[in-house]
């Protein structure tokens, strides 16, 4: 959402323009007035009033080096949101312990439309730090986290997600077709874990596994990412087992479940039959 035309159908278009401004500044810290106006496609006077209002509310601020950045009020709200997120709160001790044991950067993420979004990040080895941040988004087709989040989707929902993907070529190994992605997802379901082998960024490998709720539905995933040297071929099986164990531990802690992640969730009809026995 970054053009006026995209928010005109909202019940409160002005709020949509405010969100579009926040997204523009978040993606390009230091973006100036002209850049904001171009990204939003708004008249100069309207852009000026919007920026002034957002600054007064503390949602954006002028940067000392020029342009605009996110305001402290947003970080305050983000902190409150994090504290109220049961999944993130309960998963963090397990994620921290896991990152310490595998000495890799680890993430907790969820699905939003056709993107994987990081909810939490924990650094492992201090000598090699993988660049990432909370709130970062990736297309599901080129991230291990994303593949874990969609692999066990009901077929009709999976079709919708795959149809919405742009399949942009980020790296030479990035999967570039729906057919190719479906083959990868079949492997994910068979193994119980997903991999990103330099599909998102150079010299980076990532292994991810899903977190399930009481009904066996995938509602989040965790991942461990490192350099090719850190995540070498001979480490795959052991690391994958550790990722799945940590994901299962979070499922047990948050949702009191330890479902076999290689099996699809039960359908509503199946659940009804079980209740009737």
TrEMBL record:
Keywords: DNA-binding, Transcription, Transcription regulation. This is IclR family transcriptional regulator. Residues 73-256 form the IclR-ED domain. It holds the Pfam family IclR_C. It comes from the Bacteria. Residues 12-72 form the HTH iclR-type domain. PROSITE patterns: HTH_ICLR, ICLR_ED. One of its GO terms (molecular function) is DNA-binding transcription factor activity. GO terms for biological process: negative regulation of DNA-templated transcription. The keyword Transcription applies.
